[in-house]
Amino acid sequence: MMAAAPRGLIIAAPRSGAGKTTVTLGLMRALVRRGIRVAPFKCGPDYIDLAFHAVAAGRVSYNLDGWAMSAPQLVRLVNETAADGDLAVVEGVMGLFDGAAAPGRAGRGSAADLAALLGWPVLLVIDVSGQTETAAAVALGCATFRTDVRIAGVILNRVASARHLALIQPAFDRIGIRVFGALSRDDSFALPERHLGLVQVQEVEAIETQLDLLGDKLAATSDLDAIAALAQPIATAPHEDDAGDIGIRPPGQRIAIASDAAFSFNYPHLARHWRARGAEIMPFSPLADEAPDAAADAVWLPGGYPELHGARLNAAQRFLDGLRNAAKRGVRIHGECGGYMVLGQGIVDAEGRRHAMAGLLALETSFAKRRLHLGYRRARLLADCGLGPCGAVVRGHEFHYASIVSEGDEPLLDCHGASGEPMVERGARRGMVSGSFLHVIAGDAP
């Protein structure tokens, strides 16, 4: 018997900062507490929101990135991960129609592109602070901007009072867009942030209590039954061939993956894909001074916040010696962003303190003078490494504030931005050790 097509909807907004994450987390938690199995997703190259989704929904959240992933890859991932759920909820990225400067594999990476591909309706979150009927005009503009994207309704956020809502509601009635909920302005629901966005979920005290409060708030101010009824089956059928392969081969048969507060920026679909290809995932914690398993034939250091834990990582001799011994044995080692910096000579933190690292690459980085590096990247591999064979093309995202003080190894990548412009990011390789600032999302598989 063929499984039913996953049903879903997309939570989006006209701009960043309107309250998408607050509404998404509250909605997920409220629906789960009603016994609905929510399959969570995040549009775009985000890794912090995923962990909050996982706690709110009680299951792994996955990225759906239309710039880096092809349509078959996206459709296959949704069908495989949401098949056992009752309802998929996707948190959008930036404004509804905002994406990369140029198209990628399945669009520009916007929430609108994803809605059009999957055929899922959009529930629009509108920050109505400082306005009344203009909120309806914004919603109407979003509803008519693209004919292949359906705005099913709105949730109003930061409503000042009952009188404020009474001034807003008639305009929505007039244009025929339903208001499914109205959240009052409440700073107690704000989640703490730092330079890369929200803090990590494990750093938020009483996160379960806070999510329950959000769920209660959504349930009290929104029509949850009507919102759940908005969900539609995925419109695109999965391909029968292997065109949905994520395109990043397992770097080894037994993969030791660093996993703790310093190394948490990982895309769950990669580990899932590697397991499906027969690889064994062996997590370890550098902050707990754990070395990668000696039986591993590959070591993967994800990104994260190593600059916040420089002293602990410098003192984690079992971890550092384990990396060095693995390199001596010819184990393939790859680091992404923060993991890449840890493979280098040292990291200078924001206070100007230098912390020596593994020394497996010549890289020296600093946060003393921060500079934002942000954007989609398409890269061709210049050598065999943990990302794939020489010549393979991978796609991902660069997002960091670190500056390169010095580097001296052979380059790993021929890297270009979303519009095809050459990028200075080249990564590094030395023997079986490699790394770059690129967070890889998918490969250009057939």
**Mean pLDDT across every amino acid position:** 93
How much beta, percentage-wise?
25-35%
Helix content: 25-40%
Question: What number of domains?
Answer: 2
- Structure classification: alpha/beta
Please, how many helices? 12
Number of E-state strands: 24
Poorly predicted regions are none
Shape: globular
Tell me the Rg in angstroms: 22 Å
CATH architecture verdict of the largest domain: 3-Layer(aba) Sandwich
CATH class of the largest domain: Alpha Beta
Q: End-to-end distance, in Å?
A: 29 Å
Helix and strand arrangement:
Elements: E1 7-12, H1 20-32, E2 38-43, H2 48-57, E3 62-64, H3 71-82, E4 87-91, H4 111-118, E5 122-127, H5 134-145, E6 151-159, H6 162-175, E7 179-184, E8 193-194, E9 197-198, H7 207-221, H8 224-230, E10 232-233, E11 254-258, H9 268-276, E12 280-284, E13 298-301, H10 310-315, H11 317-328, E14 332-336, H12 338-343, E15 346-348, E16 354-356, E17 364-366, E18 373-381, E19 393-400, E20 403-406, E21 413-417, E22 428-430, E23 433-436, E24 439-443
Parallel strand pairs: 1-4, 1-5, 2-3, 2-4, 5-6, 6-7, 11-12, 11-13, 13-14, 14-23, 15-17
Antiparallel strand pairs: 1-10, 8-9, 15-16, 17-20, 18-19, 18-21, 19-24, 22-23
Descriptive keywords:
446 residues; Rossmann fold
Task: Describe this protein's structure.
With about 450 residues, the chain is of the alpha/beta class. It folds into two domains: about 5-235, 3-Layer(aba) Sandwich (Rossmann fold), CATH 3.40.50.300; about 255-445, 3-Layer(aba) Sandwich (Rossmann fold), CATH 3.40.50.880. It contains twelve helices and 24 strands. Strands 1, 2, 3, 4, 5, 6, 7 and 10 form an eight-stranded mixed β-sheet that branches. Strand 15 (about 345-350) and strand 16 form a beta hairpin. Helix 1 (about 20-30) crosses helix 7 and helix 5 (about 135-145) runs parallel beside helix 6 (about 160-175). The longest helix is centred in the middle third of the chain and has 15 residues, at about 205-220. The chain is globular, with a radius of gyration of 22 Å. The mean pLDDT is about 95.
